[in-house]
Amino acid sequence: MKNSLDRLMDADDSEPLVDELDRRIIQATQAGLPLDVRPYHALAEALEVAVDVVMARLSSMRERGIIRRIAAVPNHYALGYKVNGMSVWDVPDDSVARLGKQVGALDFVSHCYQRPRHLPVWPYNLFAMVHGQTREAVEDQVGEIAALLEGCNRGHEVLYSTRILKKTGLRISK
Amino acid sequence: MKSRNNDPAILSTPVALTALEKTLLNDFQRGLPMTATPFADVAAQTGVSEEMVIDTLQSLQQRGLISRVGPVFAPRRAGASTLAALSVPEDQLDEVAGIVNEFAEVNHNYQREHDYNLWFVVTAPDQSQVDRVLAEIESATGLPVLDLPLERSFYIDLGFPLWC
Questions:
Q1: Do B86 and B67 share a structural domain?
Q2: Is the pLDDT of residue B4 over 70?
């Protein structure tokens, strides 16, 4: 059962978190900023909005967690980190929040999420994405997660990706 | 079934990068300065010219080593999304992947080694559209969709250690 604080902290808010201008800014930047000496000026010009407003909106979305970061986004696969293992774990529900925080804090875990089980076909409730240059490197990292979870690990699997069939940035419909 | 990852030659291919490229990738993947001239500020911190920073980022982008320089959006906050999986008979995988990829709401689709061998992310402005897309995929493929929406994120933004 989730308590009220968890609900507040959950991303699943029904109230709209972005308004029309935020949406336009998201649409204009989801493929990247112009690599210009003044990228936000270029963006503001394209949107016909004052640059201060554009930067304030981006800062606000960053503070509210809608934007995680504004940064160079590495393509791990092209950089040689070709092995992507989605490790999935069955841990007790009353420990998943505590354990998830510990697993998410490991520097080699790029994403860590709680997701629902679908018994009997899917018993796993904790997902941790691990990348490496070799499968052995990923296996070592999965071993570190297993050691951290100890007796709370009631079962896990690693689903290695064998092909990227589609990968695009976030799309927001107009 | 072609699987690039099973090719050891591809796995062991190193990517040659300059010291500046590594610095930009490692030190600025967590965030650029939120200023009017972020590349000049990165240049000042790195001890190179603004032009070199911009040229290097352009080159990394052209070579596909960075997908972009810009905002990374948290999942789900901007709209609704889910992680979904299908268990597809191997001989139908390309056909089913094609059906799934047709949907504009599908922005990631990976083949993985498992009974559930097709994993994709559906993102839409609201939950009802996500549900509709999943229903349409079930009906078009004749396969039941495993729907695994995010319940909680434990993401801590430490960046990804490259070449450590």
A1: no
A2: no
pLDDT over 50 at B2, yes or no: no
A130-167 pLDDT tens trace: 988 899 999 999 999 999 999 999 999 999 998 888 88
For A4, the token pair is 């009220």
Query: Which of B14, B107, B162 is the closest to A74 by Cβ?
Result: B162
Give the H or E element holding residue A117. none
> Distance, in angstroms, between A62 CA and closest chain B CA?
9
Interchain CB distance below 8 Å, A81 and B162: yes
Residue B157 lies in a domain: no
**Residue B59's domain is classified under what CATH number?**
1.10.10
The CATH number of residue B129's host domain is 3.30.70.3460
Fold of A83-160: Alpha-Beta Plaits (3.30.70)
CA-based nearest distance B29→chain A, Å: 5
pLDDT tens per residue across span A21-67? 999 999 999 899 999 999 999 999 999 999 999 999 999 999 988 89
Candidates A94, A148, A163: best to mutate against B (most CBs of B within 10 A) is A163
pLDDT of residue B135: 98
pLDDT at A39: 97
Q: Are residues B84 and B142 in the same domain?
A: yes
pLDDT in tens, A71-84: 998 888 888 888 88
Instruction: Say yes or no: B67 and B87 in one domain.
Output: no
Q: Cis peptide leading into B33, omega within 30 of 0?
A: no
User: Angle at which helices A51-63 and A39-47 pack, to 10 degrees?
Assistant: 110
Domain range holding B41? 17-72
C-alpha dist (Å) from residue A63 to A102, B54, B72: 23, 26, 13
In this model, does residue B25 exceed pLDDT 80?
yes
The ranges assigned to domains in chain A are: 18-73, 83-160
- φ/ψ of B141, rounded to 5, equals -100, -20
Q: Looking at chain B, which residue has its C-alpha nearest residue A122?
A: B146
